[in-house]
Every structure is written in structure tokens, then in C-alpha cells.
Design a protein that fits this description.
Blueprint: E1 14-18, E2 25-29, H1 45-49, E3 56-60, H2 63-69, H3 76-79, E4 84-87, E5 92-98, E6 107-115, E7 128-131, E8 134-135, E9 147-154, E10 157-163, E11 171-181, E12 186-190, E13 195-198, H4 213-221, E14 224-231, E15 234-241, H5 249-259, H6 271-281, E16 291-293, H7 312-321, E17 325-328, H8 330-344, E18 348-358, E19 365-370, E20 384-396, E21 403-404, E22 407-408, E23 411-416, E24 422-423, E25 426-427, E26 429-433, H9 434-438, H10 448-456, E27 458-463, E28 472-477, E29 483-488, E30 495-497, H11 499-502, H12 509-521, E31 538-544, E32 554-562, E33 569-580, E34 588-599, E35 603-611, H13 613-616, E36 625-634, E37 640-648, E38 655-658, E39 669-676, E40 683-691, E41 699-706, E42 711-718, E43 724-733, E44 740-748, E45 770-775
Parallel strand pairs: 4-13, 8-9, 16-17, 19-27
Antiparallel strand pairs: 1-2, 3-5, 5-10, 6-7, 6-11, 9-10, 11-12, 11-13, 14-15, 18-20, 18-29, 20-23, 21-22, 23-26, 24-25, 27-28, 29-30, 31-32, 32-35, 33-34, 33-36, 36-37, 38-39, 39-42, 40-41, 40-43, 42-45, 43-44
């Protein structure tokens, strides 16, 4: 039996109400279950037939076809049929079933699209759009406008194509289908499922259009990536689960644009404005955003940044609690921003810059002040150099920047969510054109000077003898900043070096002229002195072995050479080893060694300092970073020498074993993860954390103790959810050793029965049981 239509005071699931302003009746729904095709309850056909006004029985959203054509079928909400997810600039199909035959001569139909969270939608702002479909689909109108056309009409069924403009706000939309009998009443059918409209890098008319097919796969569709960490002399790739298609990630990404980013609905289609908002909303400094930063070694009350394996758990937690997730450092901020950008449809990649400058005074220099005892003055030294810093690049056109000497500023744009310096009174960076950075155009919006300094500042060492004494330049290093700028290669699990996209080759004429060009644009013309190059008889060179495993001892070696053919010199000084955070601050002395060398003409000598495990272990930060420095004076000259370098001990990798034969979708297999203890002491309270395709929540395996030389192993049953490529990732933490990770990339073959059904896809997995072992 059908439900009876009743007045507003007696309604149950349906009600007649007065359309605001014109007194015509409008059919509305309440308490609708949206978990079926087109989601809407049917109008009782007998009752509907009694009315001459055309009534909508149901709407087939053609979910499978639309999601395939719009590259959105991987989203959880698409697979679960919880929403229609489309990309702007391309049409999508609706099939509407009426209660009687549709007659173009007497029936009028219109589609009303409204931004879901706009309290005052209006056509002028583009947040309220009324479409009347025309006959045929040969032309759906201008690319900048909404369009609708009738594809086919058979009796009571009408198939239409609807095209959002290529500038459409990227957000959740509501759809009402209004029907009207010419000269008589009207009805309205509210679609129960939301429609999510995303950016479209496949559409040439979209501002985020990315022409290269492989790059679209990598920067929009791939859900796992590599983030490079470590130091420039010890690069360390870490796997990160982007997870842009997982449950609630898209909903959270769309929501935060309004709730945290405070972008008015009308402007959510502008990728420049969205990118700038993302750089602020991912951190919590100004707006209680997604992640709370913490660069100490105390992570009580939250999760240590090194323990996160991806963005999904972070965004799901924020979506649920609407409270900043604790804690994060630069690569976590970057990973989450990449997830949000890719879910929205903006091509995004993660960038690591080794020896990255943090210029606090906008001088385009990093100034280090040294006292008379060769100790760095922390109060005066506000600039710093991070072992590495991680940010994002987002791909888009930049019509707002015009055309420069070297062309447009389209392409990759730096967006950095790590809160370092305020920009327009909020902690954010970008979007900054990478092309503008390379060519010294530091005044182009946004934050060009800050990014230029990160990759190309000059590092200056100053002798500071007090406020009333002149500064003495000890050393000027034009090669210290911006090494090995890295990202994951397209469709390869390896590093791509993109340094040349940010800067001209070091020591080249172009690099120096670009630096001078940038300095002339800076409002902070720092006084610059040059090293007294007239004395070059004595040469200092630090030597560090760059492949030391944690647990091993290492040596710091300073080579001193007298290049004079006739004169002997006496050099005195000190070499030091400090444990530091990866940001280059928080130094704790591990060991120091003074020296005095008498150098005969045309000779070299060495200063060697051995550092053993017991000396450094208790002072080491979680990322195992050291800062090595050497300071020296040459007697009877005015020459002072000072240099610093970064050093990192290597941590072991987690090893994977996935089954004994081929990996097949929906076929259970055994997975084993293993880690060998590299330390000369036992490990206690160990935990493996594992993530992979089909594992909805990270798996945790506890290891009580791993003896010296022992191996920990965790075993579990795993069922790959679908055919294609997969990446399993693991983290290991313990009381004595943490921030250890590993990953395994593999191909999943389709089931034999699926080869006859190429469109079959499943989102399921079976974790049956787990086991942990310690092998002495």
C-alpha cells in the first residue's frame, strides 16, 4: 500500500507545504532512507495518478557509469552508494522515472542545484542554479555555465545529462527536481543523496587540468606515496598512506573548507583560494585545524609524529571529534594536505628539501652567531637550517599572477602547512609559484621570499663579541642550503630529484644573478661582509662516513692542510658532536675534543674524535640526528674558521613476506613482518603497526622483548580486497628504538572468475588471526 498524502499537521513521511512566495504546493520528504538506488520512497501511483501534475517516482543516479566516467569509483561513498560523486566540467547522467508518460508539450521540468551548507544561496554567487533541460545533448552550453540536455525519452522515463561548469564550487550540492503542468500546479522532488562536485584535472577547461596521463595517475589517483626524510648525506624514504578514497576522508575534506578554512561557498571553486586555505587549516595555530604541531620529545596526551603511518586515521579522528589531532611535524602536515588535495581533485605531491632554511627575518640569509668560545649564541641566532623540510606542491594555473619575464607562473605551486611564520596574520605558506622561486620573482603572491630562502639562502657565520662590538664574518657558505629536493617519481617507487625546478645550478652565473635579483627586492638588506680571502694557506675539511647503523660507533675527522710552501702554522680549535632535533635546534652536547696542530709547509694532519654508542644513545632524538661542528684559529693571523654539518645514523628496515605463491584478490595469504634488533642492548615494549589495502584500522602487534641480535616477527592472515597494485606499510616502536618503518609494494592478480567480469570490485578483507614471535 502507498502512503497517503496529508496536511502538514498530520504528515508522516510526506507532507504538502506551501512554496515560499507563490503559494503553490511543493512536495517535501522527511525521514528518508537513502541507502538504495536514487534513494527515494515511491509515490503511491494511484494517488499520483489522481493529480495531473507530473510526479517523480524515483531517480536512477546511474552511479556505476557516472563514477567510472568521472574517475570517482574508488571513493568509499561511491562504492557504498552513499553519494553521487562527479567532477566539474563534464556531464553526468540521471534517469528519471515518472508516474505517467512525460509530455514535452505540457510538462515542464527543472533542476535546482543548491550548495548544501550555504545559508543564503543565490544565483549571483553561483550557489543556487536552476536548469531547464533542452532537447538533445549536442551542446550543453558554455564551459563556464551549467548545462542540461535530454538524452532520451521513453514513456515514463527521461534520461538527462547535466554539466556543472568548469569553475563550479567544489562542495556538497543538493538537487531538487521541480515538475510543473503548464497552466496548473507544480511539485518538487528533493534528491535524498548528496552530490559531491570535485575539481577535474581531466578537463582542459578546469584550472587544475593536468595533461599528462601518468602524472594524473600518480598525483590524483594513487593512494600511497613515499616521503623522504633523514639528512642530505643519508636519505631515508618513508611510506605514507595517502588514503584519499577511504571512508569519511572526502566528506571531511569538503567540510573543512567551510568550517575551518572559512571559504565562502562561492569561492570554493578557486584552486588558489582553496590551496591557501589548506595551508592554514591543516595546522591548528590560528583556527583549531586538523593537526597540532609538536617539536619537543614529549608527546604525552597524543601520538608521536613518527608513529603515524598515513592520513586516514588522522582525518577520520578529526571528522569525528572536530578537535585538532595530536601530534604532527612537517611530513605529517604535508601528508594530510596531500590527502585533502587529492580527494578534492587537485593534483598534489609531497616535496622534501634537505638543508632547508628557516629565514625568520626575511633577509634571504641564514645568520649564525658564534661567541669567542666558538659556541653558537641561541638567543641571537633566530634563523635555523632543518635537516630536511617537507611541503607540498599543487598543480594549477595562476591567472592571478599575470606573465613574467620567463612566461606564465602556471604549474606546480608550493603549499606548506607547517606553521613556521605568519603570512597575512595566519600561519600558512603559498600557493607560491615554483617558477617564480627559480627566477627570483619573490614579490609574486604568495610568500615567494620565504620559499626562495628555504631553497637558496646564503649561510653566514658571524663572530659576535657584544652589542658594542662590530660583527666579523667568519665564513660565507653559498652552497649550504637547498640540497636534493626530492619527490616520488611518477609511477615508480624511487626518488625524483627536482632541485633544478627550484634553483639554477650552484656556482653558476644564473644562480648568483638570481640571488642578487632577489636581494634587491628584499626589504631587509642585511649588511654583508666577505671572508678575508687574502689568507688561504690553511684549508680545513670535515670528513664523515655517511652509512653508520644505529648502535655502531662513528668517527668525526677534521683534515687540516697547510698549502704554504715556506711557512709553518699553528692551528688550534675544537670539534664537537651535538644531538639535535631534525629542525637543527635543541642541541645537546654528546662529545667535544680540543686540538692543537703544528703544520709544516705543504703538509696535512688529522683530528679524529671517536663517538661510541654509550656516549650518544641517551641523548639521541627520535630521528637520530647529529650536528657536527668544527672551529679553529690560526696563530699569528686574523683567520677564523667555523663549519657545521648534519649527520644521521641509519635505522634498520622492516622486512615483509607476503605468502609463498602469487597474490590473488580475495584469496587469503600469510603475511610476516620482521625486524632485527640493531642495538647492543635488548628492546622492550615493542609494537608493530601495519596498514594496507582493505585493512580499515591499523593492526597492532605487541612484542615484549627482543634480545641483542634477536629478530621480532608478527604473522597474520590477510585477504587482498581487489586486483591491482597494493602497498603494505609497517612501523615499529619500542622503549629504546622507534621511528623504524618499512613497506612492501606488490601486484594483486584478479581471481580467475573475475577475468570474465572485468568491472567486479570488492572492498573487503579478512584479518583472521595474529601471532608474534621473537627469534633469539
Amino acid at each position: 500500500m502507498g502512503q497517503k498524502l496529508s496536511c502538514c499537521k498530520k504528515c508522516d513521511d510526506w507532507e504538502w507545504c506551501k512554496r515560499k512566495g507563490n503559494g503553490e504546493p511543493k512536495l517535501r520528504m522527511r525521514n528518508v532512507n537513502a541507502n538504495y538506488l536514487a534513494g527515494a520512497p515511491k509515490i503511491d501511483e494511484a494517488d499520483a495518478a489522481s493529480s495531473a501534475v507530473l510526479g517523480v517516482l524515483r531517480v536512477d543516479l546511474c552511479l556505476e557509469d557516472n563514477h567510472d566516467e568521472h574517475h570517482t569509483s574508488h571513493f568509499y561513498a561511491a562504492a557504498a552508494k552513499e553519494a553521487l560523486i562527479v567532477r566539474r566540467g563534464e556531464p553526468f547522467r540521471l534517469r528519471i522515472h515518472f508516474n505517467r508518460d512525460y509530455s514535452p508539450s505540457k510538462d515542464a521540468i527543472s533542476f535546482i542545484f543548491t550548495v548544501a551548507d550555504d545559508t543564503k544561496p543565490s544565483p549571483g554567487h553561483g550557489t543556487l542554479n536552476a536548469l531547464v533541460p533542452h532537447d538533445g545533448i549536442d551542446s550543453l552550453g558554455d564551459t563556464l555555465e551549467w548545462g542540461a540536455g535530454i538524452e532520451s525519452h521513453e514513456g515514463q522515463t527521461l534520461t538527462v545529462l547535466i554539466k556543472p561548469p568548469s569553475t563550479c564550487p567544489v562542495t556538497e550540492w543538493k538537487l531538487d527536481i521541480d515538475t510543473k503542468l503548464l497552466g496548473d500546479g507544480s511539485r518538487s522532488y528533493p534528491l535524498p543523496l548528496p552530490i559531491y562536485v570535485l575539481f577535474n584535472p581531466w578537463c582542459p577547461d578546469d584550472q587544475v587540468y593536468l595533461e599528462d596521463r601518468d602524472q594524473r595517475k600518480e598525483y590524483v589517483m594513487h593512494d600511497t606515496t613515499l616521503i623522504w626524510r633523514g639528512s642530505y648525506n643519508r636519505l631515508r624514504p618513508s611510506v605514507w598512506k595517502i588514503g584519499q578514497f577511504e571512508r569519511h576522508v572526502l566528506e571531511c575534506s569538503l567540510k573543512v573548507l567551510g568550517t575551518v578554512g572559512r571559504i565562502p561557498p562561492a569561492y570554493r571553486g578557486d584552486p588558489v583560494r582553496v590551496a591557501r586555505a589548506l595551508s592554514a587549516l591543516v595546522n591548528s595555530v590560528d583556527d583549531d585545524g586538523v593537526l597540532l604541531g609538536n617539536w619537543s620529545e614529549d608527546f604525552s596526551g597524543g601520538v608521536a609524529p613518527t608513529k603515524w603511518t598515513g592520513s586516514v586515521e588522522i582525518l577520520q579522528q578529526f571528522h569525528k571529534t572536530q578537535k585538532s589531532v595530536k601530534f604532527a611535524q612537517c611530513w605529517n602536515f604535508s601528508g594530510v594536505l596531500a590527502t585533502i588535495a587529492r580527494s578534492l581533485g587537485i593534483p598534489a605531491r609531497i616535496i622534501t628539501c634537505y638543508s632547508s632554511a628557516h629565514d625568520t627575518q626575511a633577509s634571504l640569509t641564514v645568520d649564525v652567531f658564534i661567541d669567542s668560545n666558538n659556541k653558537k649564541l641561541d638567543a641571537e641566532t633566530t634563523d635555523s637550517i632543518w635537516n630536511y623540510h617537507v611541503w607540498n606542491e599543487l598543480w594549477m594555473q595562476r591567472p592571478d599572477l599575470g606573465v613574467g619575464q620567463h612566461g606564465t607562473f602556471d604549474g606546480w605551486q608550493v603549499v606548506d602547512a607547517t606553521p613556521q611564520e605568519a603570512s597575512d596574520d595566519m600561519y600558512r605558506v603559498g600557493p607560491t609559484s615554483v617558477s617564480a622561486v627559480k627566477n627570483g620573482e619573490i614579490l609574486r603572491p604568495f610568500d615567494g621570499g620565504f620559499v626562495f630562502a628555504e631553497v637558496n639562502a646564503d649561510k653566514l657565520y658571524w663572530r659576535y663579541n657584544g652589542p658594542s662590538q662590530p660583527l666579523k664574518l667568519l665564513r660565507k657558505d653559498t652552497l649550504a642550503i637547498g640540497h636534493l629536493i626530492s619527490t616520488k617519481a611518477v609511477l615508480k617507487w624511487e626518488r625524483e630529484d627536482i632541485t633544478d625546478s627550484y634553483k639554477h645550478a650552484e656556482r653558476s652565473e644564473e644562480e648568483r644573478s638570481t640571488m642578487l635579483k632577489a636581494l634587491k627586492q628584499s626589504r631587509h638588506a642585511f649588511s654583508r661582509y666577505y671572508l678575508n680571502d687574502n689568507f688561504n694557506d690553511i684549508e680545513f675539511e670535515m670528513e664523515l662516513k655517511d652509512d653508520i647503523k644505529i648502535g655502531e660507533e662513528f668517527s668525526v675527522v677534521l683534515k687540516v692542510t697547510n698549502k704554504s710552501e715556506s711557512r709553518a702554522y699553528l692551528a688550534t680549535g675544537q670539534i664537537s658532536c651535538d644531538a639535535v632535533l631534525y629542525t637543527g635546534v635543541g642541541a645537546v652536547e654528546v662529545k667535544a675534543l680540543g686540538f692543537e696542530l703544528e703544520l709544516q709547509p705543504m703538509s696535512s694532519d688529522y683530528v679524529r674524535m671517536e663517538v661510541i654508542f654509550e656516549e650518544y644513545f641517551g641523548k639521541l632524538s627520535s630521528q637520530a640526528s647529529f650536528q657536527i661542528s668544527a672551529a679553529a684559529k690560526v696563530k699569528d693571523t686574523d683567520y677564523d674558521y667555523f663549519a657545521q654539518d648534519d649527520f644521521r645514523v641509519r635505522k634498520p628496515d622492516i622486512k615483509f613476506q607476503l605468502g609463498d605463491a602469487g597474490i590473488v584478490a580475495q584469496k587469503e595469504l600469510d603475511v610476516i613482518v620482521r625486524l632485527e634488533n640493531p642495538l647492543p642492548i635488548p628492546l622492550h615494549k615493542g609494537i608493530f603497526t601495519v596498514e594496507g589495502p582493505g585493512i580499515e584500522k591499523p593492526l597492532n602487534f605487541k612484542i615484549t622483548e627482543i634480545p641483542v641480535g634477536g629478530t621480532a616477527a608478527a604473522t597474520f592472515k590477510y585477504t587482498p580486497p581487489y586486483a591491482g597494485r597494493g602497498t603494505m606499510i609497517a612501523k615499529f616502536t619500542s622503549k629504546e628504538l622507534d621511528d623504524v618503518d618499512g613497506y612492501k609494494h606488490y601486484e594483486i592478480e584478479p581471481r580467475p572468475e573475475d577475468l570474465l567480469q572485468p568491472n567486479v570490485s570488492h572492498r573487503s578483507s579478512n584479518i583472521i588471526r595474529r601471532r608474534t614471535d621473537v627469534i633469539a
